[in-house]
Each structure stands twice: as C-alpha cells, then as structure tokens.
Specification:
13 helices; five-stranded antiparallel sheet; single chain; globular; 36% helix; eight-stranded mixed sheet; alpha+beta; Aminoglycoside 3'-phosphotransferase, Chain: A, domain 2
C-alpha cells in the first residue's frame, strides 16, 4: 500500500491500573533479561511513557506495546542521569492461557487491573504478534503513537515465517523467513539513532557493505521521535567474524586473508560515511578534550582495578604523546564512524570462499551501528577519527587469539576461556593484514599515524580491563596482556 494505514487504539491500555497490575511481574522478569542494563540494582518502581494496544487486549490474543522507565537507585560512582531512569521497549502478549510452546515466554498473571486473570508473556516468542509487526511495516501503519515506515523501493512480502533469535545480544531480533531481520531496540532514548541514521546514509551512497533498511518502527511522543526498531535484509547463512576467527584458531588455520578483506570492507564503509555526512577538523582544543577524557577514564579505572596501577604512567604516556602532537599544530579529520566495531559486528556471507574473501570480494558486511549503548545518543553521533574503529577491531583480534573453546567444536563467546599461549603470532598477523586491507581500499594505512592509533587502542584496553574485572574476572588476563604491551615506551 502506498499510503499509511491508521488504526484506532482501544482504551484498556490507558487504564490507570494497567502499570500497577504489571509492576510486580515486571520487577521479577525484567532484571533476568539479557538486554536489561541495570543488573545488580533493585528495581524500585516503573513509570509509564507510552502504552499502545497493537491488538485489542479484550480479544483472544492481545498485543500491548509499552515504553516504561525502570527506576533504580544510583550506584555510588554514577552521576545523575539526564532521564530519571532507563526507558525500555516491551512487547507483551496477552492470552487466557499459554500453549506449551510458549511456556518459556511466561511473565505472569496479573492479580488486578484490566488484565486480571489473564496470562502475560513476551510476545516476540509468538508467531502471530511477530506477524503483526511485519504487516504494520508493510502497510506503513500508524497505531496510536506508533509509526511504521518503509523504503517503498524494497518489497516486503507477507507470510514470512518469523523466529526469535536466541543469541545473546543487547537488543532483540526477529528473523522473517530468512529474508528480513527486525532488530527491536530495548533501551530507548529520544532522537536520531545511528542504528537507523547511518545505514540509511550508506544506502543513499550505494554502499554494499551494510544491509539497507527496508523499514523502521518509530514512536512520536511529546514532540520527540523514538527509534524502536529497524528491518533489514537477512544475510542467510552468514557467519559473524568472531565465530569464524575462533573456528580458524581451533583448526590452526591462518585468518589473515579474512582480516585483510575485513580491513577493505571497513575502509569502504568509512569512505562512504565521509561522502554521506559532514566531517570536521580536530585541532588543539578538540584533541585536548579527547585526551583529557582518556586520561580521566584511566584514573577512574586505576581506582577500580588496582592491578592497573603499575602500568598507569606508561598508559598515560600514550595520551600525553597525542596531546603533544596536537599542541604542535597537528590536526586530524573526524567523521561519522561505526563506534563499536569488533569481530562480532561483522558478517561474512557464505558465497565464494576464503580465496575470494582474501581479495576483498564483497563478502564482508558491517552491522549494528548503534554505538556503545553506555554512551549518550549525542556522544554516539559525534564525528570521530576512523582510528577509533580500527583500534576496536585490533583489540578484537587480540581477544580472539587468546580465546579457546571449552567444548570441542564450540565457538560461542561465552564458552571461551583465556589462554595467553594460544597460536603465537596469530593476532599480529591479523592486525597487520587488516591494516593492509584498509590501506588498499582507502589509500591510507592506519599504522602511519601510530600515536593516534596507540591512544585509541590504549583507551579501549583500559575499558576492557574494567569490564572484565567487574563481569568476567576469568577474562581479565586478556586485556591486561595488552596493557603491559601498550604501557611500554613507544619505539622511535
């Protein structure tokens, strides 16, 4: 259909008792979700941002779309947030009773309110609600405050069988018939989200390295627009770079051909973004802010992880060296970048083989342009030197090299354990090949600016140390090995 379809919204979703009736269920269910960001802190309450009945709640199958703020106490080191609490997108199915196939999706049965006595569950596990979302995108529907848009040049067929992806991720994804994938964002903030903005910009440039959005889901609330989800072509049979790297390591195979091709793909995306969106020049003042931020993060990290203390002077020298160059008048170009680039954000399609991949035959794609979720939307949309993305990928090769599956044949990230003696030289070969591939496509080798690259890699390694110390202590030796290397005096 060429025109948007507007659907009326029923009144049960606006009942004042709705959120109160769901509160005890959500307090127990929400913290258990992989994408919930406030783990380790109790939920003290919820406030309603938006409630929309996508399917009437008084029917046999209801579908309720919620945006709710989860209120939690601040941690001692956390400054006051710009919003009183994180806002989450929830899609709740409502039935009289759940069939056995949906038992794992159960949230609970409200004891009061408009849903009293009915069963509430995570709707994304259910084919019918998933179908409704795709149909709304096809129709460019408007349902209450929800708005579904699409690229009319791309056909979105109906009757595509949906399935929920079960891989651990910070959002939720539905695959439709191996044709499309709908990424539903979970932590929602108002404004232009780079996960939609950048792929749309790259599509306008005709960049084949990033799947072009076919549709997107928005909410218009109090003068603000919230990006809720993005529908893109599904790369059937593709493997992510992390899995491919670990498979190569397990078999003792060289990965430098793939790394070179991935370097070319990264450069092509950077060049397309530079054409599509404005770039800026970073001089002394801008670089001073950058290096001050890096130094501040180092000082905070040393307080959190005492093991960093002996290496702090050497690590700080990486930032001081960059500040010295800026004070001498050197400048850098900053542009829009991926912002959170690592092997898991890259997919290689199954067509062709390693020989094609080694020559950069267009098999690698970059995905997930959301940036670091912990940063504000404004920070994620700032132009930055491309070296930041390059440094992220170099650190990812290092992680892969020091990871060995516990179970033979397993390549899942969570099954790996650090082993600092595995495949000597593997990471160095990948890092060199990646930079060479980048230079082949862009004409500029990232290694020709070693001070900038070292500063960004050092900043990333410090972040990794803090993360691993807090969440995965068994992995701490991996970034600590990088810290020891990066803290050494810079070779002339």
């Amino acid at each position: 259909m060429s025109e948007a379809v507007t659907r009326s919204v029923h009144s049960a979703s606006t009942s004042p008792g709705l959120l109160a009736s769901l509160d005890p269920l959500l307090r127990e269910w929400l913290p258990r979700q992989r994408w919930f960001a406030g783990k380790g802190r109790p939920v003290t309450g919820f406030s309603l941002v938006s409630a929309t009945e996508v399917l009437p709640l008084n029917s046999k199958l209801g579908l309720l779309h919620l945006l709710v703020r989860a209120h939690q106490p601040l941690v001692p080191t956390q400054s006051a947030p710009s919003h009183p609490a994180d806002c989450y997108q929830l899609l709740l199915g409502v039935r009289e009773a759940l069939p056995p196939r949906l038992a794992p999706a159960l949230i609970g049965r409200p004891a009061q309110g408009p849903l009293a006595g009915r069963t509430v569950y995570e709707a994304l596990h259910d084919a019918r609600p998933a179908d409704v979302l795709l149909e709304a995108l096809r129709e460019r529907a408007r349902i209450g405050e929800l708005r579904f848009e699409r690229d009319t040049r791309q056909e979105i067929r109906g009757n595509l069988v949906p399935r929920l992806m079960t891989a651990e991720q910070s959002n939720s994804s539905l695959v439709y018939g191996d044709t499309f994938i709908l990424k539903l964002l979970r932590r929602i903030v108002p404004g232009v989200n780079p996960d939609l903005e950048l792929p749309l910009a790259l599509a306008r440039e005709g960049c084949p390295r990033v799947p072009a959005p076919a549709g997107w889901m928005l909410a218009d609330l109090a003068g603000d627009t919230y990006v809720l989800g993005v529908l893109q072509p599904f790369l059937q049979g593709a493997s992510d770079g992390w899995d491919l790297a670990l498979r190569a390591l397990a078999k003792g195979e060289d990965f430098s051909g793939e790394a070179r091709a991935l370097g070319r793909a990264t450069a092509e995306v950077h060049m397309a973004l530079a054409r599509a969106l404005p770039a800026v020049t970073m001089g002394r003042a801008q670089m001073e802010l950058l290096t001050d931020g890096m130094t501040e993060r180092l000082e905070t990290a040393v307080q959190s992880v005492p093991a960093l203390r002996p290496y702090a002077p050497g690590l700080r020298s990486a930032f001081d060296a960059l500040a010295d160059l800026a004070s001498e008048g050197e400048t850098w170009t900053a542009q829009r970048i991926h912002g959170d680039l690592h092997l898991g954000q890259c997919l290689r399609s199954p067509s062709g083989g390693t020989s094609h991949a080694s020559s950069g035959g267009g098999l690698w794609s970059l995905i997930d342009f959301e940036g670091e979720p912990a940063k504000s939307l404004a920070e994620r949309r700032l132009p930055q030197p491309t070296a930041r993305d390059v440094a992220g990928m170099l650190r990812s090769f290092d992680y892969a090299a020091h990871s060995r599956p516990r179970v033979p044949g397993s390549t899942r990230t969570g099954d790996a354990t650090s082993d600092l003696s595995v495949v000597p030289g593997w990471a160095d070969a990948c890092r060199a090949a990646y930079c060479s591939g980048y230079a082949e496509a862009s004409g500029r080798d990232p290694r020709t600016d070693p001070v900038l690259l070292r500063a960004y890699e050092t900043d990333k390694a410090i972040y990794e140390v803090v993360y691993e110390a807090r969440h995965r202590p068994d992995w701490l030796p991996v970034p600590m090995a990088a810290v020891r290397r990066l803290a050494l005096p810079e070779r002339p």
